[in-house]
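Interim report, section 4.2 (structural modelling).
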Amino acid sequence: MAAGVAAWLPFARAAAIGWMPVANCPMPVAPRDHGKRQDELIILNVSGRRFQTWRTTLDRYPDTLLGSSEKEFFYNEETKEYFFDRDPDAFRSILNFYRTGKLHYPRHECISAYDEELAFFGIIPEIIGDCCYEEYKDRKRENAERLMDDQEENKDNKLPNMNFRETMWRAFENPHTSTMALVFYYVTGFFIAISVITNVVETVPCGSTPNQKDVPCGERYTVAFFCMDTACVMIFTVEYLMRLFAAPSRYRFMRSVMSIIDVVAILPYYIGLVMTNNEDVSGAFVTLRVFRVFRIFKFSRHSQGLRILGYTLKSCASELGFLLFSLTMAIIIFATVMFYAEKGSSSSKFTSIPASFWYTIVTMTTLGYGDMVPKTIAGKIFGSICSLSGVLVIALPVPVIVSNFSRIYHQNQRADKRRAQKKARLARIRVVKTGMSSAFLHNKRNGLFNELLELPVMEQHLSKTASLLESQHHHLLHCLEKTTVSLLPTSTISNMTAHEFVDEQLYEQNCREGAVQSYPSCSPSLSSQEGPTGTCCTHQARKNPLPDASVPPTCQGALQELSAVHIQCSDQPALSTSRSSLNMKLDDTSRLNCKSGLITTAIISIPTPPAVSPEGDSQPLTSPSMQTIASSNAVKVSTL
Amino acid sequence: MSSCRKRCKREILKLAQYLFRLLMGTLSTDSVEDELELSAVRHRPEGLEQLEAQTRFTRKELQVLYRGFKNECPSGVVNEDTFKDIYSQFFPQGDASTYAHFLFNAFDTDHNGSVSFEDFVMGLSILLRGSVQEKLNWAFNLYDINKDGYITKEEMLDIMKAIYDMMGKCTYPILKEEAPRQHVEIFFQKMDKNKDGVVTIDEFIDCCQNDENIMRSMQLFENVI
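Predicted structure of the assembly:
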C-alpha cells in the first residue's frame, strides 16, 4: 500500500461504522494496538548530515532496513541517533521514498552507485516511480551492455587447455589471436577478391577477331578462367569444411547467415560440374552463375563496417517494412489515378495500371527517366502531386535508419576505444602492485636493520611513517614467508629461513639461467650485517660471474648497472604505495624482465654490493638503499 | 431550435478558424480556454485551538491527522476523485467508487464538492469519539441519499449494491444477483415498524438501540486513532 494511503487507514476503518446497522451478524474483534506509543522523531545521521523524521514514517515499509529492526544495528548509544556511513546525497531520495511513497532516481547519480545504495537499504528498484523509471532502465541497460562488452573481451583470453578444435575455432573467429589465423584471414580475403574480380572480368569483351563480334573474355580464355574459378572454389570449400569441423555447435553453424552465404557461393560450381553439356538445363545453369556474386558477401567477415551495416538493417527491419508498405500503397494509388487520367489521350504509354507502376516509381523516387510522361492536364497535375508526395514518403523513415546506424557505429567505436584504454589501465595497476611489494621489502629491510644493528633514529623514523595498514600488510607477508618453510635442498641448515625475498643479483642470475626455483641461501640482511657479505658476494661471484654486476666497485655503480637491466619505470616515492601512483604517467609499460613468472616471492631492492665496504658502518649500508630508491629510476622487478 | 442553430453557427465558426489557421501555416497554439486548475485552490484549515474545541480529538491527535491529510492532499482539500482513489486502495478486489461517492457526500457536510480538513476531522470525531446516538445519526445521514429525512427502499438498495460491489466478483460463495435486494428486504423488515415503506430517523435509532449486535459493533472502532 502506498505510504500516504496507510495514513488514511484509520479513516477507512472509522467509515466502516456505516455498515454496522446493515449487518446482520456480529463483527469480528478488532486487533488491539499494543505498544501504542507517541509518534517520536528519529535522527538519522548519514555521514554527518542529519536527517530527522517521524518513526511512523519509517514504519510504513517494514521490509526495508529503515523500517525494520535492522536499523538497531546502526544505533549509536552516545549520540542517540542512527549512524549510516553512506552517501548523504543518495540517501535523500531514499528518505523521500518513505515520506512520499514514490522513489525517484536522481539523474546526476551514477547508476551503479544508486543501485548499491538501494541494495543496502533494502529497497527494490522496481518501485521507482513512473516519472523516473524509464531513465533508470535506460541507464541500467547501457551499463549492462558496457559490462558485457568488457566481459566478452575477457573471454578472448586463451584458456589454458583448449584442444585443437577449439583453438581452430578461436582462430577463425578472431584473426588476431595468432599468426596462423592472421595469415589464413588474409589469404581468404585475397581469394575472395580474386574470385569477384574474375567474375567481373569474365564478361568484359576483350579482343575481337575481324570476322566475329566482340567476345567476352570468359569465352576467349575459357581454360584460364576455369582454372581460376576452380582454385577459388577449392579454397572456399576447404575453408567451409574446416569451419564446419571446428564449430562448437555444427547445427547452429550451419544455420548461421555466413555459412549459408558460403554454401551459396560454392554450390553453382559443383552443380555446373555435375550437369555439363546438357543443352536444356544449361540455360538454367547460366542463371546459377549469378549466385557466384554472393561471394562478395563473404567480405563481411573481414570488414566490421559491413557487419554493422547488416546489423543495422536487421534492427531497422520494421522501419524498412513500413517504408516499403507505404511506398507500395502510394504507388498503387497514383498509378491508378494516372492511368485513368491518361486514358483519354491518344498514343499514351499508360496502357494499363501495372504499366503505370513504372512511371509512378520513377517519379516518386525523383528519378524521372522521361520514357513515360503524362500529356493531359489532369495527368500533369496528378503527376506533380505524385512527385511531391514521393519525396515525403521516402524521407520519413530514413532518419530512423540513420540514427540507428549511428548509434550502433558509435557503440563499436566505444568498444574499440575501451579496449585500447584497458591495456594502459592494467599496466598502471601493475605498477602499483610492484610499488607495494618493494615498499614491503624496504620496510622489512629497515626493520631488520633496526633490530640487528640498533640503528639510530632515522630508520626508525622511516619505519614509523609507514601507516598502520601498511605495517599490518607487511606483517602478513612476513608471516607468509615464515610459513613457507623452505623445502628446497638449497637452503642450508644454518640460516634456515623460509622463502625469502631474494637479493637482486641472485635473482638476475636465476633469471638468466632460467632456473626459477632456486632460492638463495643467504639472507641479505644477515650477510650484510655480519660483514661476511664479502663471502656472499664472492660466493656468488664464484658461482657465476655476472657480466655486468660482479663485484662492482661502488654501490652506485652496481645500482646503475643493475638498473640498466630492468625496464624503466617512473619515479617511485619510497614509501608511498597508494593508489596515487596510479596517476603517475608511465613512460613505458613495465614488463617483467624475464619470463619466470613462477617466482612466488618478490625481489628486494637491496644491492648486496654495498657490502663491498664492509668496514662501513650502518649508515652507508642503508643510505645506498635509500639512494636506491631516490636516485634511480629503476623499478625493482617484482612479482607477487 | 434557436439553441441548435446557435450551436451550429459556433461549430462552423470553429471549423472556419481551423481551416484558416491550417492554410496560413500558423503553428498550433495552446487553446486559451484552459480549465481553472484545481491546484490553484489552497485551503488552510482553522486554527488548532478551534478544531480542538469543535472536535473531541486532542492536540497531538489533530496534528497526526493533519500530517497524514496534508501528505495526501497538499492543496488542503479532497475532491471526489481523489477520495474515490484513496478509498478504492483499501478494497482492491471490488469497485469501491459508488460507496466512496456516498461516503463523500456524508463527509461533505456543506455540499461544496470538496472535503476540507475541518469536514474530515468533524466526521472522524463523530465516528470515533461520538456517542452512540451521534454515530447512528451519522449512519442515517449516510443512507439518506437525498437528505430528506427518510430512507426509501430505492436509496437503501443503492447503498446495499454499493456495499456488495466492494466485495467484487471473487467471493465464496458466489454472490447472487438478488443478494442486495434480499438484504434490503431483511433490513426493512427489521427497521420499518409502521410498514410505510420508509424508515425515519426515530425508527432507525430505536431499532438499532434494541439490537445487541449493532450496539456492540458501534464500539468496535474506538481505538482507531
